[in-house]
């Protein structure tokens, strides 16, 4: 049985490789829909009590340890964790050599309830004044229950600071999610850009919602305790549940996941920006007001003016709902945000926009639809050198399974699409070049499947730009 599957998967891979080859030869035409169909692992959540969710030993031991960037420029981290039994200490001891903690910082804790679930004590501690490009060791908790971790600060803000980001979305807590994490660990990426929908705890009922937030925190600790995850919120974070008496949007998410929003003059943890190495990363909230005159709209308008491509050449935007997506799932849900922000993305020459939400993978060409006009009939997206590349990686592997139906024919804006689980990496080399990969989870194996070189929108002129013959979409044959 196992062997048969392996042979089948080999044949599909061979077929796939030859198709990729053909498509490269055929360069200049429309995009590629990968025929790869993964063998489904059960899209069920890992059962409670499994070793993937192991509770650390010792009374009140810190669990769900995670870090995120703590300031605008990468010289601070926020370290967060949960103590289950009593508040305990919010102190972080840290230093640059192992077992020698010369410094300490004091954080804060809070607890919350959701329906009848009472959370543990959630600690957030800002550790700032760090040096660039250094390994720091840190310790939290006390006595036999204390736990030790480490992280590496990014190189200084500089146009040629090289850096490798990973991009993960819609992760959940299934065996497919685990496979994504395992493959991510092999990628040697240094920071996760997370594009929303974390735990999928909202698919549970009553107290299990809180319990599944806790299991997810322990699940991702293997990575999140050692490198920052840059958070953005998805629809599964909203948790508007009047039937349980819970009507405050993002309640669990905001208690558990912090962001350095104040450092960039944002008024909400749901939208903010950071600078790291040679990148300026802007995080937007699909599920917060963003139309003209709202706080998010005003903040983004100002933040885009603060972007300095001479210092941080790479301008990256994260959001949950994709603006260009050709899957039947969530088709056109990004139109509302497109109509408000696309003009700015083109004007400021954003390099790449990562989104999740659709449980499949897709990469677009550089296209825009900023001439859309309801009164003149202008309505088609067209090739646009100044436009971002749009990448959807909502394929972390959550319990809802894959979005398997792509629209047919493949629209001209779509460069590559495949319905599989996986994650991406963006390896910034210098001010002009970045190497982008999407890695499929082929069950046990990590398979680099889609890749492209991104030439910087500010520093490199994109000479290899693909020309589309016609601006017609959707109905016409190629
Ligand atoms: C927080 O924990 C205390 C016990 O330390 C408890 O009395 C209180 O009800 C908890 N608050 C919430 C909102 O769960
Ligand atoms: C739409 O087209 C009309 C007529 O040409 C023009 O006056 C108007 O400014 C356009 N609106 C936008 C938002 O481009
Ligand atoms: C940037 O990196 C690319 C790829 O490694 C290399 O070909 C190019 O020469 C580099 N450019 C600069 C300005 O260093
Ligand atoms: Fe979503």
TrEMBL record:
Residues 1-30 form the signal peptide. CDD domains: MPP_PAPs (cd00839). SUPFAM superfamilies: Metallo-dependent phosphatases, Purple acid phosphatase, N-terminal domain. GO terms for biological process: phosphate ion homeostasis. Its EC number is 3.1.3.2. Transmembrane segments: none annotated. The keyword Oxidoreductase does not apply. Its cofactor is Fe cation; Zn(2+). This is Purple acid phosphatase. It comes from Spinacia oleracea. The gene is LOC110800106.
């Amino acid at each position: 049985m196992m062997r048969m599957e392996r042979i089948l998967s080999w044949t599909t891979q061979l077929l796939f490789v030859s198709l990729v080859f053909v498509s490269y030869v055929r360069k200049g035409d429309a995009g590629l829909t990968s025929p790869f169909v993964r063998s489904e692992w059960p899209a069920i959540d890992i059962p409670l009590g499994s070793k993937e969710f192991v509770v650390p030993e010792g009374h009140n031991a810190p669990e769900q340890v995670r870090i995120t960037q703590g300031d605008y420029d990468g010289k601070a981290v926020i370290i967060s964790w949960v103590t289950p039994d009593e508040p305990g200490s919010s102190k972080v001891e840290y230093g640059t050599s192992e077992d020698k903690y010369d410094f300490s910082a004091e954080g804060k804790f809070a607890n919350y309830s959701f329906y009848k679930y009472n959370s543990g004590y959630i600690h957030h501690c800002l550790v700032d004044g760090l040096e660039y490009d250094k390994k720091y060791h840190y310790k939290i908790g006390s006595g036999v229950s204390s736990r030790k971790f480490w992280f590496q600060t990014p190189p200084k803000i500089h146009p040629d600071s090289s850096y490798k980001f990973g991009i993960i979305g819609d992760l959940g807590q299934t065996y497919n999610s685990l496979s994504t994490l395992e493959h991510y660990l092999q990628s040697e990426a240094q920071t996760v850009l997370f594009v929303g929908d974390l735990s999928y705890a909202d698919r549970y009922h009553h107290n299990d919602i809180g319990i599944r937030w806790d299991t997810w925190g322990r699940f991702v600790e293997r990575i999140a305790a050692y490198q920052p995850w840059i958070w953005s919120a998805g629809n599964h974070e909203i948790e508007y549940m009047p039937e349980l008496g819970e009507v405050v949007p993002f309640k669990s998410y905001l208690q558990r996941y912090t962001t350095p929003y104040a450092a960039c003059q944002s008024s909400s943890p749901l939208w903010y920006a950071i600078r790291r190495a040679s990148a300026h990363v802007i995080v937007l909230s699909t599920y917060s007001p963003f139309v003209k005159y709202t706080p998010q709209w005003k903040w983004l308008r100002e933040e885009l003016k603060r972007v300095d491509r001479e210092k941080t050449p790479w301008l990256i935007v994260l959001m949950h709902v994709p603006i260009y997506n050709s899957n039947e799932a969530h088709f056109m849900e990004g139109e509302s945000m497109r109509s408000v922000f696309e003009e700015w993305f083109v004007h400021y020459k954003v390099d790449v926009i990562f989104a999740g939400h659709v449980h499949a993978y897709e990469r677009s060409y550089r296209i825009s639809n900023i001439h859309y006009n309801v009164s003149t009939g202008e309505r088609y997206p067209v090739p646009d050198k100044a436009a971002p590349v749009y990448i959807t990686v909502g394929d972390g592997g959550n319990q809802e399974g894959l979005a398997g139906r792509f629209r047919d024919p493949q629209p001209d804006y779509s460069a590559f699409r495949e319905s599989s689980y996986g994650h991406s990496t963006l390896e910034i080399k210098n001010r002009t070049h970045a190497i982008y990969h999407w890695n499929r989870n082929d069950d046990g194996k990590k398979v680099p499947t889609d890749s492209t070189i991104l030439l910087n929108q500010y520093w490199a002129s994109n000479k290899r730009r693909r020309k589309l013959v016609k601006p017609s979409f959707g109905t016409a044959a190629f």
